[in-house]
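Protein 1 of 2
SEQ + STRUCT:
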Amino acid sequence: MFSFAAILVLGFFLGMRHATDPDHVVAITTIVTRQHGIAKAGAIGALWGFGHTFTIFVVGTIIILFQVTISPRIGLSMELAVAAMLILLGVLNLAGTLRWLQERFTPSPQVSRNVLNERSAGTQSYLSAVPSKPESVEPKFRLDRILHTVGLYNVFRPLAIGIVHGLAGSAAVALLVMTTIRDPWWAITYLVLFGIGTIAGMMIITAVIAIPFAFTARRFSGWNRGMAVASGLLSLGFGLFLSYQIGFVDGLFSSHPQWTPR
């Protein structure tokens, strides 16, 4: 039991380390450079982690319970989907499409403030008629403020990116777990803790990345725009590099693909 507990704890910390993989950091950077709040960036990181964990849990559970064999071509195709996502993010970022979508589906600060003021006024009138504990109101509005200003588009985007990124790691993680933990239910528990660690790690990473943008948003707006363009170029370049590595070096586009789960 002690060895199993040690393995499960190790899974959590390996999940945190997994969040620092270059393709994950590059993808999330294209999103965080458009955010000027540390709390919102952390929420976006958590959403990415949830999407990533969802895919790893679903695909990994199927592989573990049904002993599914993943061929090299399927494994490389999953990784190629991540490269395609990075290329798409880079192109959309450079073309200004991401900024347009964010502005289109994210409430402006003024609109958000007006809506929150109206809600606050309505809540105050309600509280004057119905006694309630005042300390329970403030945390609610803090969470409401964060989620409302993030916007629907910024909720869906990291979830979708996390789900796609989970494809690249799900098969590899599941296959590696099967060689270490023979009991399938313990192996699935490992996947869950691995995913929780990934969520925690990505929240920390996104918050750290957002710190300089939060403090320079007003004084150095030109620098922020330059960093957003640089993140788009980095995403595009890294996606092309991964595509070449997967397609030609690892042989996905050849008759003898070679794939090593990692």
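Protein 2 of 2
SEQ + STRUCT:
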Amino acid sequence: MSTNKPRIRKIYTIIEETHSDGTVQLDKPSRKAAAAAVFSNPFAGKYQEDLSLLYEWSEQLGEMLTQKAVAALGVEPAKIHSYGKGAIAGGKGELEHCAALMHPALGKPMRDNVGGGKALIPSTKKLGFPGVALDVPLHYKDAAFVRSHFDAMEVRLPDAPRDDELVLIVAVTDSGRPAARVGGLKLEDAMKEDGLR
């Protein structure tokens, strides 16, 4: 196990509250929060076969970012409804660097800090530049087919990523979409056994 730690330049925490959607005024705002870490990419501009260092970093960052996102909503971890993750590599990075951050090891620290989570965590990745937008996909943490929670949160950092940087993002919600009404599996009917239904 490496003792190397990511060299973090910035951490952002973003809260989005929806009070109305179209003509519908909500009794209670629908809230989303994202926490993002901007850090140096140790493999910028060079090919590296073994990306396990990024797996390790994702565990450290994943715990911290998930805790920050949950804290931003001011709810207990068990009250989190949906989750999602995203990563951006700067111009000297690769999509595979994003994959290494998100896929082998990030799930456990996220689930540990949202009161469970049986469903796969939806994800997205891209190469980008400072200010690029990333739509982080979201769905219900215990049953991915709960249609009222199919959603996304746009995350945009004004000064990241630089060419030699990576951005890792964790997003959570305290509810589904505002005024959801397109049918499908309802939250109250979800079995929460297989991560799907």
